[in-house]
Amino acid sequence: MKKSNWSIITGAAFLMATSAIGPGFLTQTAVFTSQLGASFGFVILVSVLLDAIAQLNVWRIVVISGKPAQEIANQLLPGLGYVLSALVFVGGMAFNIGNLAGAGLGLNVLAGCSIERGAAISAAIAIGIFLIKEAGKMMDHFARVLGILMILLTLYIAWISHPPVAETLARSVAPSTFSFTALLTIVGGTVGGYITFAGAHRLLDAGMGGRQSLRDVNRGAVSAIGLASLMRILLFLAALGVISSGKVLDPANPPASVFRLASGELGYKFFGLVMWSAAITSVVGAAYTSVSFVKSFHQAIGKNSRSIIIGFITVSCLLFLSIGQPVKTLLVVGALNGLILPVALATMLLAAYRSRLVGNYKQPLWLSIAGVLVVAIMAWMSYGVLIQLAGK
């Protein structure tokens, strides 16, 4: 692989992974660990499989076609691209409100400023990235550095919390309890909504496309899921270690209490840094990807996409300052984001068999079958969760 390609692929992988690893990701993992204990390991393993299948299908079709997802959808069925873009754009805005809340909380822990001021400062930093001439390269570098930092800090907390490894391994293959809501939520939080397209659209913007890029695309897609899953597993182990020692997580801020109970005030400062890193990279990823879903609809939008990204971040910040973002909403938005995945993935699977979109490319049969199974599983779980939410 050429050095330039490697840089593009790793940048796309980290963009997708850090887009997934946001405040909701941290909150969901801590909450479901406290609810399911070691059996949450089984949910994570199933989610990794579903995530990888979805990611491989989406990245391959987008790059092979050389078109962003909304154009593929519109060519498949006129108007479908606009529907998909609306779902992704609104979902990305909702997530970015939570992302900025998390960034504000992180700076509150680190520097003692108010959450609102921390959110505003973080929004300004994210906007600054898109004011730089080489914004794409800066975004890739930013995601890499903070992504590695988050993983290392969480690895330390997982190690110091002493999780019950033997029980975790056993329950990860033979769970004593299971939650469809947990599975839907964490799959939605990893590859739902805008997230699964973040890396693929970044590859298009970097000039990658066609069958000659397939090997690199496969590596990038698998690497992205691997990075996000590694962070999920480390946080799960850290939370499980804390819970297994008899301590109780604070429902007002579950992930913060994991770090604090494991390593005292030092751990709490580490949480602040992890939360800020997770949130600020997700702010960047959500804004970039959400706008990538509308910039092809009109020449003026494409020419001014950077200004629209800045506006997207600004509006998200203003909405947060107006309405706030509680833990419960982060969980609900994560579940709702998972509802977009069946629609988006089904669209990509159909596009894989339209020669006007992919030429003479032949999608591997096993990948298509696996993709159809993921669509069916996610649609079924989404229906169950919608019924559950409607009954509350």
Task: Provide a brief overview of the structure.
Helices cover 82% and strands 0% of the residues. It is mostly helical and 392 residues long. Pfam families: Nramp.
Which SSEs are present, and which pair or pack?
Blueprint: H1 3-20, H2 23-36, H3 40-65, H4 69-76, H5 80-111, H6 115-131, H7 135-160, H8 165-173, H9 180-191, H10 195-205, H11 214-244, H12 254-292, H13 299-303, H14 305-323, H15 327-351, H16 355-358, H17 365-390
Binned, the helix content reads over 70%
Q: Write the CATH homologous superfamily.
A: Amino acid/polyamine transporter I
CATH topology: Amino acid/polyamine transporter I
CATH class: Mainly Alpha
* Uncertain segments: none
Notes on the protein architecture:
The chain is an all-alpha fold and 392 residues long. It has one domain (3-390): Amino acid/polyamine transporter I (Up-down Bundle). The protein has 17 helices and no strands. The relative contact order is 0.21. The mean pLDDT is 87. It comes from Hufsiella ginkgonis.
Question: What distinguishing features does this structure have?
Answer:
single chain, mainly alpha, 392 residues, Amino acid/polyamine transporter I
